[in-house]
Amino acid sequence: MKKEEVPQDIGNLSNKNMKELVYATDENGNYTTALSTGWEPKTIALSNSIEEIKERVAIAKEQIKRGKSSPIFYFMELNRMDISTLSSYVGMWQWRVKRHFKPKVFAGLSDKILQKYAETFAISIAELRNFKTD
Alpha helices, DSSP H only, in 82-134? Predict the structure, then answer.
């Protein structure tokens, strides 16, 4: 894209008086940098994905409320992780992490295991153990 064609649409960045650094070509065809306030398709895509994340967090919270899942599942969703990512962070097999989503299994986890999750989610063991959905 040419430098003078860099999108300057109204978006999340323009609302905060920020600009994104992008690459464009100058009049000689050489790559250079330019500032953009936003690009409507990108803004729409980001908004959609943020809404989807909010929905997933709400579903996770509801599952905890109904006793179907543990707080580990909620914090995984809140931190925009999947099972693969979370298992890598805590250094456990994916099947073990999935097992820890079960409330009965979660209730029996040691402080050592809970500490791994707490560090990953940047919370305390107490916050993880005593999570309330209200």
Answer: 83-90, 94-99, 103-107, 111-121, 125-129
